């Protein structure tokens, strides 16, 4: 009887020890999940405040697009990490027959921030892709040899560059709109103005090239 009693006591101790370890794991998972939300929020903040430039030419813009994709991979890993931690808290709570202190609040926060990040990221990609198209077409026209004007003497090409440039300028003034109706702009007004100024300068060069092709005698006179 005494041996049976001691075995029962040992079993109870083991069960309590296991529950204590699970409680520690639960608290750790909850803390780390909350930290993942904070990290994701910081990435969103960095995206909106520092990922602003559209590049001075097509090559630089392509590099920015590639860097952005890697940035998104980091955010995706952070989100997945937070989801895994919250799933672990559910399993632990079921085992402990308790309710989580924070996972009920943390999961909606995590999903909300991730949704905001994906919306802002998609807008960033769209702007970079527009900038690549704009710079690529502008560079083709501006770099073509004067001896071969027929290669670029196409009104449609000029019209397309102008249209993409104007669309890109308009896009810079549009905020990112989240599902809850809140809005957020990329960068500050001065950042926006600086980016827009470079696009306008490139559009002016393309316009000047167009005038030179229409009136080659102007170039001869000036030279």
From TrEMBL:
Single annotated GO MF: phosphatidylinositol-4,5-bisphosphate binding
Domain of life: Eukaryota
Protein's UniProt name: SEC14 and spectrin domain containing 1
Lineage per the UniProt record: Eukaryota, Metazoa, Chordata, Craniata, Vertebrata
């Amino acid at each position: 009887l005494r041996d049976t009693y001691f075995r029962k006591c040992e079993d109870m101790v083991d069960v309590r020890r296991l529950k204590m370890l699970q409680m520690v794991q639960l608290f750790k998972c909850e803390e780390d999940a909350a930290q993942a939300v904070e990290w994701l929020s910081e990435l969103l903040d960095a995206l909106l405040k520092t990922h602003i430039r559209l590049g001075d030419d097509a090559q630089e813009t392509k590099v920015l697009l590639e860097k952005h994709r890697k940035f998104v991979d980091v955010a995706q890993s952070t989100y997945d990490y937070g989801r895994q931690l919250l799933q672990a808290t559910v399993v632990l709570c079921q085992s402990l027959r308790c309710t989580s202190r924070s996972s009920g609040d943390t999961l909606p926060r995590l999903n909300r921030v991730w949704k905001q990040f994906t919306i802002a990221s998609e807008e960033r990609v769209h702007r970079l892709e527009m900038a690549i198209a704009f710079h690529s077409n502008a560079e083709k026209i501006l770099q073509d040899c004067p001896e071969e004007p027929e290669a670029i003497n196409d009104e449609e090409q000029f019209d397309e560059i102008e249209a993409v440039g104007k669309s890109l300028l308009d896009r810079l003034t549009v905020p990112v709109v989240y599902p809850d109706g809140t809005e957020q702009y990329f960068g500050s007004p001065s950042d926006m103005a600086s980016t827009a100024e470079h696009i306008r300068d490139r559009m002016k060069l393309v316009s000047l090239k167009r005038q030179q092709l229409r009136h080659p005698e102007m170039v001869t006179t000036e030279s």
